[in-house]
Amino acid sequence: MTTIDYRQDFPILKTRVNDEPLTYLDNAATSQKPQAVIDAMADFYANGNANVHRGVYTLAAQATDRYEAVRDQVAQLLNAARREEVFFTRSTTDSLNWVVQTYGEQFVSAGDEIVVAVMEHHSNLVPWQQLAIRKGATLKYVGLQPDGQLDLEDARKQITAKTKIVAVTQASNVLGVTNPIKTLARLAHAQHAVLVVDGAQAVAHMPVDVQALDADFYAFSAHKVYGPTGVGVLYGKYALLEQLTPAQFGGEMISDVDWQTTEFAAIPERFEAGTPNVCGVIGLGAALTYLQRVGFATVQTIEKRLTAQLLDGLTQMPGITVYGPQTVADHGPVVAFNVENVHGHDVATGLDLAGVEVRAGHHCAQPLMRYLHVSATVRASVGFYNNEADVERFLTALKSVKEFFES
Amino acid sequence: MSLLRLKALYQTVILEHAQAPHHFGTVPDAQTVTLHNPTCGDEINVQMVIQDHQIKQIAFTGSGCTISQASASIMTDVLAGQPVAVAQQRIANFSTLITGDTLTADEQHALGDAAVLATVAEFPTRIKCATLAWHAADQLLTMGDDADGRTK
């Protein structure tokens, strides 16, 4: 199998960085964009731009149709029971904050518990932490097994009759593990709590079925699934959405406004106040069409092979510590590591000089860094458009950087 | 890869300071300021005893990358024993240097080993690593020798 064809779809992969070919291994931060997405967005502004949901003229109706068609696409992608369960935000962070400001504000009281995992990204942690402070609730953490997988035994202890919300990531942005969402849903629902899932690191890499997972809320970002920045998705079970008061008010979300009262629009418009990121949503639609054409079977075959190559290369190199599972069977396309006695930022600067772009730092997961007793790690993350030569260049550059700092 | 550019950033004197930092540790009864670099988790704690408008003692602790540790170590050499006004001028000069502007020969000489950090200007993403300790020192000097409380 070859990935050459896919690489040609991504114009940025032809650029050079520091006089070296771009080796982009920071897909967990954001994915690059295929020409199909760039074209769809340029075409919208060149030929189709109008505001949605309000104009009676043809162009506005067409823009609305294109925007709403993406809602259908996302509903199908996630296997939502109905299209109204999907609405657009500006990011995963925005989606998660939305759940906090609606469900959290309405249903969490003093003495209640909110349970998260220690591996959470700050976006699925700080909003809950601040809600807990506001409400006098308790924020509890589910720990890890020694290999970095979520500790389900601990989850069984932490999720209690007092728990109102369990919020976990489906796939870790540091450890590369995928969490047992179905089991967590059962544990949460047995205590009448809701399960909020951060899907930011999952949707580009695996098929997601929110009904099979039994997730109550599910959030992800367009920019990590080959779409543009500035668009997030939130899925919520309809029966829950019906109970929620909007967190934002204004245009688009009303059906009738009187002097002193307002009747809100139906779901999902009720939750999309103001002009949405129409072009961005259309870009997301093009990205999902592209991704589904490639197919998750191909995506997973390529990413698994590259992850194995990454893990093999790193674990065989002396003085390297890999965090999370060491075997590819338990590993998503994200590998975090450290070089003995060399700070992650120094490693990343060295790699950058070789055109190899990786992330170094705390990856917006400082509690996890504390849990692992490290201040920072280096993270390489692959997408299906990467190839063996990318991983090879990364490993060769890493060896040189390591030797430089050891000498 | 461009080992030459790597060598330009990580000159021997920088690597030496990072490996065996000067004035690393704590000073009793000092005023302290701790600063973080939120993008990477670097932490630097600078301590000073200032009496009669002069830095009598200086030390630092913390953890972070080679650049941040080396820069802190170099800074303690450059500021130790200096009158507050001189120290403030050197911090300002370091800021000028690290953002790519030139200094007079005398100003550069006064910065000692810090002059080699000038190459950091070519690595914009690393400038914050180099300036963290100097910002902490600047805050301590602004607090001056009138302050009787400690800052954390």
TrEMBL record, chain A:
<dbReference type="GO" id="GO:0031071">
    <property type="term" value="F:cysteine desulfurase activity"/>
</dbReference>
<dbReference type="GO" id="GO:0030170">
    <property type="term" value="F:pyridoxal phosphate binding"/>
</dbReference>
<keyword id="KW-0663">Pyridoxal phosphate</keyword>
<dbReference type="InterPro" id="IPR015424">
    <property type="entry name" value="PyrdxlP-dep_Trfase"/>
</dbReference>
<dbReference type="InterPro" id="IPR010970">
    <property type="entry name" value="Cys_dSase_SufS"/>
</dbReference>
<dbReference type="GO" id="GO:0006534">
    <property type="term" value="P:cysteine metabolic process"/>
</dbReference>
<dbReference type="InterPro" id="IPR016454">
    <property type="entry name" value="Cysteine_dSase"/>
</dbReference>
<dbReference type="InterPro" id="IPR015422">
    <property type="entry name" value="PyrdxlP-dep_Trfase_small"/>
</dbReference>
<keyword id="KW-0808">Transferase</keyword>
<protein>
    <recommendedName>
        <fullName>cysteine desulfurase</fullName>
        <ecNumber>2.8.1.7</ecNumber>
    </recommendedName>
</protein>
<feature type="domain" description="Aminotransferase class V">
    <location>
        <begin position="23"/>
        <end position="394"/>
    </location>
</feature>
<dbReference type="InterPro" id="IPR000192">
    <property type="entry name" value="Aminotrans_V_dom"/>
</dbReference>
<dbReference type="Pfam" id="PF00266">
    <property type="entry name" value="Aminotran_5"/>
</dbReference>
<dbReference type="InterPro" id="IPR015421">
    <property type="entry name" value="PyrdxlP-dep_Trfase_major"/>
</dbReference>
<comment type="similarity">
    <text>Belongs to the class-V pyridoxal-phosphate-dependent aminotransferase family. Csd subfamily.</text>
</comment>
Automatic annotation (TrEMBL), chain B:
<dbReference type="GO" id="GO:0005506">
    <property type="term" value="F:iron ion binding"/>
</dbReference>
<feature type="domain" description="NIF system FeS cluster assembly NifU N-terminal">
    <location>
        <begin position="10"/>
        <end position="129"/>
    </location>
</feature>
<dbReference type="InterPro" id="IPR002871">
    <property type="entry name" value="NIF_FeS_clus_asmbl_NifU_N"/>
</dbReference>
<dbReference type="GO" id="GO:0016226">
    <property type="term" value="P:iron-sulfur cluster assembly"/>
</dbReference>
<protein>
    <submittedName>
        <fullName>SUF system NifU family Fe-S cluster assembly protein</fullName>
    </submittedName>
</protein>
<dbReference type="Pfam" id="PF01592">
    <property type="entry name" value="NifU_N"/>
</dbReference>
<comment type="similarity">
    <text>Belongs to the NifU family.</text>
</comment>
<dbReference type="GO" id="GO:0051536">
    <property type="term" value="F:iron-sulfur cluster binding"/>
</dbReference>
